[in-house]
Amino acid sequence: MHLTRRVRIQLAIFTVVALVTVAVMALHFIKLPAVLFGVGQYTVTMELPKSGGLYESGNVTYRGTEVGRVQSVRLTDTGVEAVLALNSGIDIPSDLNAEVHSQSAIGESYVLLLPRNGASPPLKNGDVIALADTSVPPDINALLSAANTGLQAIPRDNLKTVIDESYTAVGGLGPELSRVIQGASTLAIDARKNLDPLTTLIDQAQPVLDSQTNTSDAIQAWASHVATVTAELQTHNEAVAGVIDKGGPAAAEVRRLVERLQPTLPILLANLVSVGQVALTYQSDIEQLLVVFPQTIAAEQAGILANLNTKQDYKGQYLSFNLNLNLPPPCTTGFLPAQQQRVAAFEDYPPRPAGDLYCRVPQDSQFNVRGARNTPCETVPGKRAPTVALCESDETYIPLNDGFNWKGDPNATLSGQPIPQLPPEPPPAAAPPIAAAEYDPATGSYIGPDGRRYTQTDLAKGAPDDKTWQTMLLPPGS
Known about the structure:
478 residues; alpha/beta; eight-stranded mixed sheet; 12% strand
């Protein structure tokens, strides 16, 4: 048979392609050199309690990548040994766990190598992975048998109810469940990437969990209150919805009102802050006033109404004008001494003397019993002092004297507590120089305040004799 040149060329090309294809399959896919001669591989023995479904030519993976094959699986006196043929050039730490896994419940088995750390030396030819560092999956038949036994223990009607309700619960939620599973997978991957911080968080969570346990009663009470609030919100749902719907327009009206009241309202609110601070400090006093005030008003009304529309003169309240002047006499101790006191007729307003002016007699003295020295301290119950600084200090009130007279130097105190003094008076100003203008008696000329020269002939020599200093004060011609 004669072949044309074109056919011979085609056969040659086909032969070359076939040879290349066979070589690629043998070298890359089938890996005949490694299978037949062990080229580019080294073997490691893996001890197992049982095969766990592992078979010859099964995959061996490391960090999710195939790194070898199961060369053989054989029985031993203590269990099973699997010889792993691992690819050279991939350093796998020798400190690891070797686990047998299945792709699915009925899928193929493979070996998963999980290193404990990356600092251990790599595996080498002839190494043995001890039985303590290996594991196999549970028997699928035992799991299915246990699951079947558990299902048989559940009444059929109840099991049917569970399946029906589960279908109702998750029916049509395929995309949502898919997103949940995908999110859980992402969360697990992120947790794996942040394993050390997550482990630290778990190790240090004990004090937080203990605090939750110790405050379980408070948490239960809080949950009960939250349940009560939510129940009330549900009961008054329409009212809450109305507040939410009308809250926006109302807030806008309030904002426009505040804008119209500027700048008066901000100043008022700023002043109310100070008032609020004072009210907070004197909260107990204000509460006492609010308690006593109604009773006082009731007593006053009862006393006034006792004489209403009657001719009796011995009931009700009466106002006495018995002033009892100077009983007791006024207190002067602690104020400016008499020689420093101003006359009451003066109408000026000099600066206030430095220090605190109040009656500095003993706190149980009959003088000015409601004076500043007997002011109760707000922050120190049971203590009385005239100033906040003395209230909040460890010092005690020390009077100047018994109050009947001023003792000692009026500009000092025997107790060590300073007394107010008048501010130092400024030194008297120097008297301005008297303006004087020298003149020439011969001509009567002199230099005025403006620097010009003036001449007054009646001041010169030869002026009339009747000119005296009195006539100098009179206008000319007088």
